């Protein structure tokens, strides 16, 4: 993390950064998000868990408007999410996103993947963007792969590059949409290590995951979703040892047994 | 055979014109067709509809009818494209006939280019566009920097077929006063009725060579730009 970034993060720590208010979303007949109220404070790590189809990924994707919403408002740093066009593109540049399937640009090298945003969106010079990209790639441990293409890297390496690509835009908040669900068990750790490191440095993060270990170690707050609604919100300690709702007890009973 | 050999310069000139029609309308339809494809997948509804109306109109109309419209109906309506004859490129004047033929071929072929291009765009995983948008690229940036470069690779085989069809479709211009290969072949056979089979074979070989060059270059391009996934 650059000095400038940590500066802004610590300066405003605790203020609301992402606010979802009365958010509703339908996919045809399916009510995918039901009256979602969620505030993510600056520097906070919020982990969203829940069974498949509970709307966690949809929730995550609405924050940078990859999914539109039917009702309600979402604000980022006090500003409403723009509808379409240049303003929306500018907003997305402020929100880093890491996908389950990595989505690295297949026709570009690792280095080009990381420099594309800074050069084309931020207007940064090529030399400066490459210097910064190499620093970020070193930080996530794939610096020596910079000249290769995505398909030549393992899944864990690709996901770390995807994190570096998002960080290169110096985002205000990072969204992780099941970042380890497509990975082998061995590779999950290397990605989670990078994420824990990021959390400790004060990055605001919204993480959709099935990794309960990560939720326990890195989360400030756990949000439990089921059937499109937020059922329970608590500290990880409280949530895992003493879940209040039956739905959460049932879910935890199933996943923590093995 | 003598008919071809003794007029070999005419034979070459005829295929020169065929290639000229192919190259000019090929480039024009690649450009127009790509723009149409971008409009069809783009976020603006009215442009989606306009592009898809264009494709419906020109893909579903026989090429011969488009030629008839441009060569016969348009001059009646006052559009004879004579102005292009004032344009000089590399010492040659563009003939209105050549321009009209290229226009008809481009209008027709660009509809097919659009659909081939669109299939290429659809072959690029959705996540690529989402990743582009997620780092703040605008629609046109994510098209030109992320989607189209990858779509182009997927699109080479179907696009080659479209281009081969175009190369052969230039023969329709024979009926509209252009002395390209097919018109010249007809002239040769009219003058030398006893050598019809030989003349026909020579012109067929000419077309085969042109088409083989197209498919060979597409093969080379395909090998060069192959991308691993």
From TrEMBL, chain A:
InterPro entries: AAA+_ATPase, ABC_ATPase_HisP-typ, ABC_transporter-like_ATP-bd, ABC_transporter-like_CS, MetN_ABC_transporter-like, P-loop_NTPase. It is a peripheral membrane protein. Keywords: Amino-acid transport, ATP-binding, Cell membrane, Membrane, Nucleotide-binding, Transport. It comes from Nocardioides pini. It comes from the Bacteria. It is found in: Cell membrane. Residues 18-252 form the ABC transporter domain. One of its GO terms (molecular function) is ATP binding. Its main location: membrane. The lineage of its organism: Bacteria, Bacillati, Actinomycetota, Actinomycetes, Propionibacteriales. This is Amino acid ABC transporter ATP-binding protein. Belongs to the ABC transporter superfamily.
Automatic annotation (TrEMBL), chain B:
Residues 15-218 form the ABC transmembrane type-1 domain. CDD domains: TM_PBP2. It is a multi-pass membrane protein. PROSITE patterns: ABC_TM1. It comes from the Bacteria. Its main location: membrane. InterPro entries: AA_ABC_transptr_permease_3TM, ArtM/GltK/GlnP/TcyL/YhdX-like, MetI-like, MetI-like_sf. It is found in: Cell membrane. The chain crosses the membrane at residues 14-39, 51-77, 89-108, 162-179, 199-221. Keywords: Amino-acid transport, Cell membrane, Membrane, Transmembrane, Transmembrane helix, Transport. NCBIfam families: HEQRo_perm_3TM (TIGR01726). This is Amino acid ABC transporter permease.
